[in-house]
Amino acid sequence: MPSSLLWAVDVYGRVYSLSTAGQQWEQCRHAHLEFKRVSAVQQCCWGIACDHHIYLNVHASDVPIRYQEETYENQRWNPVDGFSDRLLPSDRWQWSDVTGLQHQPLDSFQLPSETWEWEADWYVDENFGGEPTEKGGWTYAIDFPATYTKDKKWNSCVRRRRWIRYRRYKSQDTWAKIPSEQTGSLPDPFNDISCGGWEITEEPRGRLSLWAVSLQGRVWFRDGIHYVNPEGSVWEEVSTPGEVVQISCGPADLVWAVLWEGQLQVREGISRDCPKGSSWVVVESPSPEVGAIHVAVGVNVVWAVTKDHKVWFRRGVNSHNPCGSGWIAMVGEMVMINVGLNDQVWGISCEERAVYFRQGVTVSELSGKAWKAVSVPRDNERSHSSASASSLQSAGCFFGGEVRLQSQASVMSDVDSETEKAAEGAPSILEPEDAPKPRIPKVTSDSFISELVSDREGQIGRREGPPAIAEPPIPEEDGAEGETEGKTAPALVLSPSQSGGLDPQWSNVDLEEAQTHLTVGAVAESAETCSLSSVATFNLGMEEQYGPDERPLWAWVSGGGCAIDSHSQLNWFNSTTGLNTSMQAMSLSITPSQTAAWRKQIFEQLSERSKREMENFRHYEQAIEQSVWVKKGTMQWWRDWKPHKWVDVQFALEQFSGAEGNKDGILFIYYTFNEEKKYLHAFINEVTILVPVLNESKHTFAIYTAERTKQRWPIRLAAATELEMFDWLALLSVSCCDSRGIHGPPSKQAIWSVTCKGDIFVSEPTPNLEASPYPTPCDQMFWRQVGGHLRVVECNSLGVVWGIGYDHTAWVHSGGYGGGFFQGLASSTDHIYTQTDVKSVYIYENQRWNPVTGYTNRGLPTDRYMWSDASGLKECTKANTKPPSPHWTWVPVYYQHLFGSWFIFVSGGTDREGWQYAADFPASYHGHKTLKDFVRRRRWARKCKLTTTGPWQEVPPIPLSDVTILPCGPKSTVEQVPLWGISNKGDVLCRLGVTSLTPAGTSWLHIGTDQPFKSISIGGACQVWAIARDGSAFYRGSVSSQNLAGDCWYHIPSPNRQKLKQVSVGRTSVYTVDENGNLWYRQGLTPSYPQGSSWEHISNNVRKVSVGPLDQVWIIADKVQGSHSLSCGTVCHRLGVQPMEPKGQSWDYGIGGGWDHITVRGNAMEAPRIRMPSLTDNGNNATGPRSPLLSRGTSELNGNAVGC
């Protein structure tokens, strides 16, 4: 039997193939893209890349793929010219097809795609019916159409000849993209694909059936796939009774699909004349409680996987009964199943993501006997293995016991006593007959030797490879529908961690794994290398995502082109990687978190020594006891009382330093009222925030204190120049930080926020901020500005901070501070980089219809401006519209000399010219014109660019629309920080390699979705929730530190008649915000049912929500009442959040007026315990938190200082 290929895709999107005659995975070197899944047959392999485009890989052969193009040249005889191209009006075209009905000139033939090439030019076919014709290749007939002959007769009035040209398919053994013009008419990209149908009864040889599922759940069939046309011709939609998430096509006429609700449907009526079939029949899921997520079909078999990863076999399936008769539960837990030639079965295990082969599948026993892991190396591992072995041997000869003892002593000096006792009491080598026990290694800043030992033990156990899974044969006649084999079959053992591990607990556990059985051989070999047990191998560079000793993690497998049977001899199950067990056992892995623990320990020791040395000098007097300096200037002040206007004032900052080195100061504003000199003052230590305010005519900034934050009425000042304003802001910011003792970069627990203008602010939380029942009021929080310009910021307590700009560029915090207008002491000297951002400025063109001229720019006197902003209240023309501030500059457009700098914004809600129609101004707009539409508008856009500096580094190349980072507990440490994002196209991505030392990570892992998403959040226990662009909610199942990508999405019903727009997940709480500004809390979240049960309404007028690692809830609220006006974009804190009352009780209002985003996901600082006073206490208790009502009022200038 000739060799054939098994295809697979790893979790990084790389495609591998394994030959039946080979012993290693060969990577497809020509695949420059990351693939989601593949579907293989013997002659080719289809795949869906992460860009949602379909690619085809045709295997090279000795016989090239050639296609013959032909056209006919037709002529008629007339007495004057003889045979000429002057035809009668009723005749066929001069150049036509064989029937004469289609016009086909020579220049009308084009190559279908770039994967084809012409072999030669057009030439005349001089053969007719196997016999040569006269020179010129003409054949004659009496008329069109008639019987043609090669001989000319006296009554031959017409003639024709055939022109031929061949094109050759040149893209073989490489991935070729299906032409976009053939898929451009599709409404959405593809999410699943399956190829088969080459054994349909009486089907012409070389004919294939390709089925695909789009992101919207629609099914498509690729027509015209043949040996001489491997790409096919056109996509045809196949109607379905519901939304489909996955489909499988067998070699013959079996086609099954999985519906969104978990049911399955079978396609009936498939034949040679109707390869698409005629109707669907719904089949219930194998388990009534959980639906199906995957199905795979062959010739006479159907396998399915349910949401709990259980594997099921459908009995009684054949060509006469494609629906089968009943389900049989099989042993094993898989994420996907694939059926190939001869009904052989492959799968990918749930726990270890390894490829498994089903042994014992025969014609008489279609269910097989046991699962066996495919254990072969990849093509890039053999060289790594030999190099690793030699390096380990040399390391073992060089390092002695002295190094080992020193390393252990330095590490174990600060280990907790409990950990030491546990390490001493635990046996070093587990006997074969001992039962495996669960083990949770403790990895903290001062103890990580336990993980080193556990890694070594885990490697010893894993080198033996996963054992085969025994399972008794299943006769078809045994068992009724719904019966399972679990009663008699032994338990499935897919991986060492599964055999002894416990179910993941609801609490946050950083690392959890189980000790494994060690074979006698492994014990003996480990004893030989006990002298080298302290040798550690550091991986300073890694070219591949996998290390040389790591097994690959597979995401998809396809055996449709793998021709094996029960008698095939395969070398896939006994391969070694080149390192013996003893070498593998002594290879230890030092993680970045362990290296960080060493650094922290050294830093603490140096700090303690510095304190001891300075203790003897504390009684020395300071050289300078106290100093005072004053800076004065002239500004304008926005008067607090009516009539409000700008008043010229004298501004002074008096700053002094005390005997102990502490600094403080006072602000003075001297003004004249009714010819009387007066002044305002504010203590520097009472200032809570300094905010630059954008204004077209003045360079202004606002000063907030706690009292003015309550009133929503700051001190607003205007400088003469922009440089002077920035000088005062930098000076005041440094003074405020000095008075509060805040220096350096933001801490890991910091709270980040962003204004609607893109300015970034950070606040250092106090321990009492989340205290109950008397927390620190959030209007007393001090906010300082950080350089840069962003739209979204997310963080966690490990110091990983990411941001997204208005142009969807991703940025990571570099660890510095300052930047922008902060210079000198207000900014760090390093870790400051140039940052750019691009945004669009929109104006609206409005028109009204009249019976004479139709739609024109002549409106009614009561109409809005014909060129205005979105509200219509402000006139905005192309000439007078300027960038948001002097920092922004217009971006030049390459076609500006033709069409100007402004361009029309066209989307799905407009017509082709960008117009939106309505009955009147203002009203609900729609993208199509009706008889009742008398007004219309369209949006014009122009891009502007901002260049600044800040502690941010760009993370290329994928633009993002949302990002989320795992919120960690107070003392938790993780080796790799889970970070998820959503691209600007709606794709879900998972960032790999994110740690505290490398916060930017290394690469993206694409997560499959059925539709584009817009919001995502990851919470405690790796719970991932997301919001799709249509407003529906989803939960990602089986996400863990070992399985970063999870398995599948579960649809969560939205609140009644509401479309969600944002989600935030904490430790045990899930909050969402809908498009109408309502805040919802998800009830019924339990470890066994993390999707929850229902939504409960909490509040309205909410713009954004952020849930922290301690389930604290913060929001950005709209329409918050102040002393003078309503404030839009106010930071609010939910009070009374307790484990028994996660929804809280009331709101506390903080800084407000123009804020757009906040994240508290880095604040894992637990509040101190407070003793509740008794009812008999007569002391004066603190007043309770404020909760002003939301009401309407007249908007005034200072109520929204940022100018959102």
From TrEMBL:
Membrane-spanning parts: none
- In which compartments does the protein localize? Cytoplasmic vesicle, Autophagosome membrane; Lysosome membrane
Any GO molecular function = lipid binding
> Region entry Disordered: which residue ranges?
410-442, 455-487, 1172-1204
What GO CC terms are in its UniProt record?
A: autophagosome membrane; cytoplasmic vesicle; lysosomal membrane
Q: Where is the composition biased (Acidic residues)?
A: 474-483
Where does the source fall among the domains of life? Eukaryota
- Sorted alphabetically, which keywords does the UniProt record give? Autophagy, Cytoplasmic vesicle, Lipid-binding, Lysosome, Membrane, Repeat
- Give the compositionally biased regions (Basic and acidic residues): 455-465
**Family statement drawn from the similarity comment of this UniProt entry:** Belongs to the TECPR1 family.
Can you name this protein? Tectonin beta-propeller repeat-containing protein 1
Q: Which organism is it from?
A: Astyanax mexicanus
